[in-house]
Amino acid sequence: MLSTDKGQPQASSGPCGSWISLSESCFLFSDFTASWGEALAICKAFDANLIAIESSDKNFLLEGYLQNKHPHDSDKSGADYWTGGNDIEKERSFNWIGSHHPFAFTNWMTGQPDVSEQDCVEIRGISNFKWHDDNCNHQHLFICEKPLGGSPEIIG
């Protein structure tokens, strides 16, 4: 099991294996970049989805982890992570890829979302891990998520 110290995960073995445990989920933080579609396919290969940030509590835990992982401003410039958020089906109607739930909580950086050709949501390091819509073909790091101790729910 993974224990926490002031919200920061501590590495240990447990139900998440080599993934990181935060709250009720297991997370894989990639160390390479991919397009949004490629990132989704990689997560699916692990029986996971791109991360869905559906509450302020989850966002707080994630932001704390990323701040710890990228503590210096110079570390943050390339620390952009794809999430499962998108408005691919209907412009300006953002939802999470796994659950298809519309956004009930948001953490957009000022001025976002801004461009109609940018349908996928990233967490942007240089903006202190606020959300930003971006072109789905751009290459970013990504975060996979699956429920603690199980496979993600199958929708559809």
TrEMBL record:
Q: What are the alphabetically sorted keywords of the record?
A: Disulfide bond
Gene3D superfamilies per the record? Mannose-Binding Protein A, subunit A
One Pfam family linked to the record: Lectin_C
InterPro entries, alphabetically? C-type_lectin-like, C-type_lectin-like/link_sf, C-type_lectin/snaclec_domain, C-type_lectin_CS, CTDL_fold
Domain spans labelled C-type lectin? 22-145
UniProt keyword Disulfide bond, yes or no: yes
**Is Calcium set as a keyword in this record?**
no
Q: Which PANTHER family match?
A: MANNOSE, PHOSPHOLIPASE, LECTIN RECEPTOR RELATED
- Protein name in UniProt: C-type lectin domain-containing protein
User: Which species does this protein come from?
Assistant: Magallana gigas (Pacific oyster)
- Lineage, uppermost ranks: Eukaryota, Metazoa, Spiralia, Lophotrochozoa, Mollusca
